[in-house]
Amino acid sequence: MFQQVVISGITVGAIYALIAIGFTIVFSTVRVVNFAHGEFVMVGGLLYAWLTIVQQIPLALAIPLAIAACVVVAWLSYELCLAGMNKDNHIAQVMVTLGLGVTIKGLAQVFIGKDTQFPPSFSSGSPLMLGSMSISQQSIWIVGSLAVLLGLLWAVMQKTRIGKGMRAVAINHYAAVLMGISPKRAAIIAFVFAGLIGGAAGALLSPVASAHYDNGMFLGIKGFAAAILGGLGHPIGALVGGLILGLVESLTAGYLSSAYKDAVSLVLLLAILLFRPQGLLGRALPNKL
Amino acid sequence: MTEAVLSVDKLSAFYGKLCAVRDASFEIGKGETVCVIGPNGAGKTSLLKALSGTLSKTTGVVRYRGQVAAGLSPEARVRRGLIHVPEGRQVFASMTVEENIELGAYARRVGNLSGEIESALRLFPRLMERRKQLAGTLSGGEQQMLAMARAVIGHPQLLMLDEPSMGVAPIMVAEIYKQVQALREQGVTILLVEQNARIALGNSDRALVIASGEIRHQARSSELLKDGAVAGLVFGH
């Protein structure tokens, strides 16, 4: 029982981590908490379901199409809503992302529909047996995708010119401008990554948890909680926060009652905000005058 | 003076409604080093920010290498070799010394920089020793050296230095100004802002004396060093 609970916790935690990365990457480059991010995840799942069930498109095509659509949604979200705004008015920016989230949800409801959909797993086949544990194929896809996407993100951030530029914007916006780095370009790339990873998270989750136009806010809150838990702005923090949140929820559901799992995760978030507001991995960076 | 790298005509710069620089007009010729001196709050830093485009609320005309700068974003100015080493260094604290220097060449879009990073590190032996260290762990003087090295790798056509001696140990000030001299000898055009007027005048061809946002006086640096009347304004005694 314990092992099974841990496996389900890691699977859910990997999804939370993927969502949290989207919050973190946008927050660190654009300094905005993007409350529409959960809707990007919802769009990924809903489009994947719609393409496979309604349009009968093969999986190998439906997955990249759904993710690509999310990238476009994320890019347009920045370009149409945030790009022209006053950078220093954070409250207004947050309000705009909230409105954006409602808009995306509304469009999804109108154009794709209100039905809950149950799309197919990425690969069919019997679960993998490890001793007495059974690991579903979709769980392997989820955890594997997390590893691949994190590795990809790490490589882009550490090794490429554009990634180094984005880190520079995150560390010191003013100095980055003086290096000739365009903050707007960095913001667009941050949103593209958020759309890509968020869309993938949505598509990966939908065979396990179904797809519905109204899921975005819930997914966004879980991802945001994971990002805060690990330390907003830290990709590794997002990973750690997501996994911890997934495990805590899964253990609560397994040994207490699934009715308490959201309560326990929110209490955890509250405790972090009270006692370690910078998150588990967050720390004050050395910065001399 | 041959051709002007920078020509500024009636430039004013504002923070909201507050006017930080008023009707500044001056030119900098190719290869010249011009210093801006004046008391704290006189508008020296604001002048540099207006020229690099990071303070965007301005009136008047700035021409950089013949082109009107008003339509150029700060990034576009950097790509054209207008490089600003800001007050307080502004290094990327959680990146290594090497990564900081590499970012100095961001706008040049060159592929392999390892050779150039080596020669930038060679300017300051202390940086060479600390190349893998995070920039935030360096001392103030070392950070200033890093900010200089990061600017040099950007191939400046006009290098603007804001208070390179501020908060820096005197022995390191000497090392930093040795490199300023080397850049002058290589023919780099420099606009130097310094609150330490003796250092500024000793390391420049011409000086702009600024007070309350206005340029009060322009003269050769060597003359200002001798001139008692201006010394009162400049040195504050």
Mean pLDDT of chain A: 93
Q: What is the arithmetic mean of pLDDT of chain B?
A: 92
- The strand count of chain A comes to 2
Shape of chain B: globular
Number of domains of chain B: 1
The number of helical runs of chain B is 10
Determine and state the CATH class of chain B: Alpha Beta
What is the H-and-E element order of chain A?
A: HHHHEEHHHHHHH
Give the CA-based shape of chain A: globular
Strand order of the largest sheet of chain B: 6-7-8-3-9-10
What CATH calls the topology of chain B is Rossmann fold
Helix-and-strand structural type of chain A: mainly alpha
What this model shows, in words?
Chain A is an all-alpha fold. Chain A has one domain (14-241). Chain A is built from eleven helices and two strands; from the N terminus they run ααααββααααααα. Chain A has helices spanning 2-30, 37-54, 59-82, 90-111, 137-159, 161-171, 173-178, 183-209, 216-230, 235-255, 261-275; strands spanning 128-130, 133-135. Chain A has a two-stranded antiparallel sheet. In chain A, helix 1 runs antiparallel to helix 10, helix 5 runs antiparallel to helix 8 (183-209) and helix 10 (235-255) packs across helix 11. Residues 285-289 of chain A have low confidence and may be disordered. A six-stranded mixed sheet of chain B has the order 6-7-8-3-9-10, sandwiched between helices. The model of chain B has no long low-confidence stretch (mean pLDDT 92). The two termini of chain B are 33 Å apart. Chain B has one domain (4-235): P-loop containing nucleotide triphosphate hydrolases (Rossmann fold). Chain B has ten helices and ten strands. In chain B, helix 3 packs parallel to helix 6 (140-152). By secondary structure, chain B is of the alpha/beta class. Chain A binds chain B through residues 161, 164-165, 167-168, 171-172, 174-182, 285-289, and chain B through 52, 54, 73-75, 78-79, 83-86, 88, 90-95, 99, 102-104, 106-107, 109, 134, 136-140, 143, 150, 154, 167.
